[in-house]
Amino acid sequence: MTDKSWTEIQSLGVKAASGAAVPPAQALAFGAMVARHLSDGGSEDPLHAALNAPDTILTLAHEIEAMVEAASVSTRIVSAQQPDAGQRALLISWLASLPCQADIVTHENAVQAHLSLKAPSTRTRPARIAISPSLFSHMQDLATRTYVPDSAASRTSGAGAGLMELD
Amino acid sequence: MKDLVPETLPLRPPSDVMRLERMGVMMPTRLSFLRVLVRRLCAERAQITRTRFEMSPDGHGHAVYSVDLSGHTYSLVAISKDLPADQRSDRVIATAWDAAFVLYDGVPETAEIERIAAQAPLQEAGRFGPRDLVLSRANKSVRMWDATVAALRAGDQPDPAMIRDIGYLMRTTAVYGNGKFGIADRHLIADRPGLDGPFAAEMLAVYMIRHFTLDLVQYVGRSSLDDRLARHLGIGNATGLGMAPFLVTHPVLFNNWMLARETGLARARATDYLSEDLRDRAIALANRATWHLSEWHVPAPDHETALRQLELDWAAFLPRFADLNGPQPLETLWQSAQSKSVALQELVAALILELCPDVVDGLADCMGDPFGALVAPFCDTDALRAAIKADWDWAVTQDYADPDACRRFWYVSAAKLEPRLGDRFADEGAELETPLDIARRVAELMAGLPAQAQPVSAFLTNNPIHAHAVARVATLARYPYSEIRDNLIAATCRPIDMLRCKLSFFGATKFDPKSDLWTRITLAQGAPLGHELSPDADDWWLPVLG
What we know:
The structure holds 2 protein chains of 2 kinds. Chain A is built from 7 helices and 6 strands, in the order βααααβαβββαβα. Chain A has helices at about 5-20, 25-40, 45-50, 55-75, 85-95, 135-145, 150-155, and strands at about 1-5, 80, 100-105, 110-120, 130, 145-150. By secondary structure, chain B is of the alpha+beta class. Chain B has helices spanning about 15, 20-25, 35-45, 110-120, 140-155, 160-165, 200-220, 225-230, 245-250, 250-270, 275-295, 300-315, 330-335, 340-355, 355-360, 380-390, 395, 440-450, 455-460, 465-480, 495-505, and strands at about 50-55, 60-70, 70-80, 100-105, 130-140, 170-175, 235-240, 410-415, 420-425, 510-515, 520-525.
């Protein structure tokens, strides 16, 4: 296991999801979820699985959208059924990574939450997050798919370009 | 009970403020982050102490400077190297620099200094820990450095004209914070007084780097710089595209910056009357602006022309400052600027803010984003459509089939993992575009909304690609200054305007654009020196050397 900063894990999670062809909004949310999931000691297996089957990420995103939408029209507890234990764990981490307060309980296959959409989350973040070399490598490999080789034009027009360096 | 909320006039609408044309001429203000940081250092009468200094006579080695800020001690560890001239480059692709820095949480022991001395010169290739708050590097302005050392060794002072024209001994080429390369995440320090504001740790690093450069040049020069000259030596910076997307990817934070600034302006404009002292102060600030403009020259012909035009316009506007005796004098002044150029308006805005610390300075506490976007979802697609109609006309009325409306694409370079800008019709990689094409995405969302209302979550289940645009629309509905209201992929988009806006919030002066893609600036020019930090030293808006 290696230690990374929260920002490193979150931004790598975003890039990895993007590299797996997940659309931008869902990739952003996925990155935040990865940091929360790992910092809370969650298993890496469902993260590998989700990145290997990006439709899983979209499905989780839809479940979250529906729960947030339901919470916006009622103060009642909202819930989602998720029979797969790994995806259920990710759903919990996703809810916990929302910027709003989320009180979460599970009941068999159901994930239930009370979302206070106007109240900020009070969850703390650790100084370091442990991640295995295999998951880090998996995410890096996917992230690499989003990078573009520099063009000659970009190399000659960036900051500092075209000047005498002794000025 | 007296109402303590300051009176205010209506804020300028986002449709006026959030345009690249205006962002591209913004000026530093007393709400700029470096200014706020230095004001706090001044209020606490902070003292910078040199706790270690192991340098060769030519200034190569390492040094540690510590400062107490609001109950915490922070240290700058500075590593100075002998850099061959052929390796000196301001490019982000450089691999060696004259100096490398870490702002450290606490006072580092020897082992920690040795660790930092080994890692900091590697910069992006190094590895850092949670007590490392900021990572930076800098290159000398060799002209300014050599001339200053030579003058000091000869028992003289450096040429003031050269200081006026260059303005710094070193320029940073990157200042990294918030978790990059393993350094501390921002959330670890975000609740500390003094570092709670945006980029406060980075600004503290910059201020202490400036202190280091002045200390080092006097050590190498074996003589003291005159305080007046030293004060006018800030820290240079070369900034490129890497900074621009931040304004798009942090919409709530950006909203809070702009909202604080606009609220401050609206409050100041509401001032009933100005005392004689404040009228004199307004005239003094206006004259200082004149002086500052006269000392601000850049090599790029188009930008130099714009500066000289602003100097002329300002000279013509100056008589307005003689007529601040009536009611709501700053509103009168402000309204008289509305028929003038956008650049002049932004200069007037910054001056009005400078004049009214009592109703402005407290807003600095509101410029962070500790929570993220707390937005409520739309009840259905009709509500979503209504929000787009209300706020996004500038986006949905463009024809994105026109190649020039979508010529640019933003991407992340494989070589340095830095943002870049490509030509969609000439360069490879457009399929990997970074989603900064907000305007086009919202237009596509609008076109794709169903005629019959349905829950937004149901719409997104079938159209997940639109979730990003939906989130931006929801965010703008709650945070009115969160969105740049221009097409960022248009051929006409000038990233330099985004850089100018962000850098003005940092407190940058002497913008010196080298192209539409990058600029040099100066930070901390005119700021009180390390031994001058006292409450009466917070008067260095638009510094002049004279």
